[in-house]
Amino acid sequence: MTDGSGGWRTKAREFAQSTIIPRAEAMDRSDEMPAEIREGLAAGGFMGLGLPTQWGGHPATAADLVGVLEELAVGSAAVATLLAVHLSVAASPIAAWGTVGQQQQFLPSLARGRFLGAFGLTEPEAGSDAASLRTRYTRSDAGFALNGSKMFITNAASADVIVTFATRDPSLGRDGISAFLLPKGTPGFSIAQRLDKLGLRGSETTEMVLANAALGPDAMLGPEGQGLKVALSSLAGGRIGIAACALGVARAGFDEMQRQARSEPADWKRTEVARAFTDLAAARALVERAAADRDAGRPYAESASTAKLFASMAAMRIAHRGFEVAGRTAARAGAPSERILRDARVFPIVEGTTEIQELILGRRLVSGDGAR
Ligand SMILES: Cc1cc2nc3c(=O)[nH]c(=O)nc-3n(C[C@H](O)[C@H](O)[C@H](O)COP(=O)(O)OP(=O)(O)OC[C@H]3O[C@@H](n4cnc5c(N)ncnc54)[C@H](O)[C@@H]3O)c2cc1C
């Protein structure tokens, strides 16, 4: 767990210790993120990590980012997820695909943490198969009108800008989809509900409604018909971040399991700790490999999928066995092992489920040029 030149991992660990950990249990109970946490993320520069310096971002490698997300997730998976979504699938696609005008409008505020970003792809009837989304857009002289709904969107109720996807015509499949920048306060855009969840409590997950949501003529992000490419390229990077969040939850699970085993040692508990230790080390190696691929400019879709697949399932295994090691005390609501188990369960789902990662990898390994 070495730190990069910017010392970002150390800063994140200190922020987790001082500000997140003391509030994590209450955040889980109330499902609300305290204002001090978002303010601290902004003040610490984390909201601009790796974004272009010309727009106020801070130079950082993918290795720095995974270090930060891991440390934050040890304190709270919800906080790490807020930042992972803001950076990887909201601000980064604007930096990668936006016009200078769009970048100028959003990136300085996103990088400073004055703005929060979100990513609206999933719909009530379209999750893993994003190409089947049904939210439609039509053009008018004034710009675009969006109609449809989005489900399970992280950060959306508080977000200042949401990278949102809609189709010109569902019968066109992936070629009909375009990406849009949907600012807060857009007429016709509303939040229908905030979803109550098993884990990741404190992270907002919402249903968005678009009823003739009126966007200006400059709202399209990237070329028309390339929306799925915008989404998938963002998600490939996003998976490294989500893998790092899962690694942080796995580490929190390991630390708690070790603490519980030490308090009442037994050989079966020693075996569990040894297994968890091995799982954690393997997850770390895969997350670091994916970040190193990205930093070296190598293709990273395969290593990102591998890291996300393994780290999220490792977090689940460690959390599940940690619950056993902790024994009956773990069953009390709010006990560390109980919260870690609920948080871990989310990571095999978000940004491409375990089954979808297996499908992507399997296709590359069997029918493509994957494997090293
Ligand atoms: C806490 C949370 C936060 C989220 N945040 C966001 C967000 O910010 N933005 C956003 O756009 N979305 C977000 N999502 C949505 C998430 O990305 C989707 O839940 C996920 O992509 C799966 O889609 P689905 O839930 O519709 O499940 P489905 O696609 O309906 O899948 C159901 C099950 O079937 C399996 N399955 C589906 N297709 C196949 C296949 N071809 N082969 C084998 N198995 C398959 C899946 O793995 C899964 O187990 C979030 C979800 C959660 C739970």
Query: Strand order within the widest sheet?
Result: 1-4-5-8
Q: Under CATH, the topology of the largest domain is which?
A: Butyryl-CoA Dehydrogenase, subunit A, domain 3
- The average pLDDT value, as a whole number, equals 96
Major pleated sheet: 4 strands, mixed
**Whole-number count of domains:** 3
Q: Would you identify the regions where 5 or more consecutive residues have pLDDT less than 50?
A: none
Strand share of the residues? 5-15%
Number of helices: 10
Between the first and last Cα atoms, what is the distance in angstroms?
25 Å
Q: Which series of helices and strands comes N to C?
A: HHHHHEEEEEEEEHHHHH
| CATH architect. name of the largest domain | Up-down Bundle
The CATH top-level class label of the largest domain = Mainly Alpha
Ligands in the structure? flavin-adenine dinucleotide
Q: Tell me the Rg in angstroms.
A: 20 Å
Mind telling me the CATH superfamily name of the largest domain?
Answer: Butyryl-CoA Dehydrogenase, subunit A, domain 3
Topology, number of strands: 8
What would you call the shape?
globular
Helix content: 40-55%
Structural class: alpha+beta
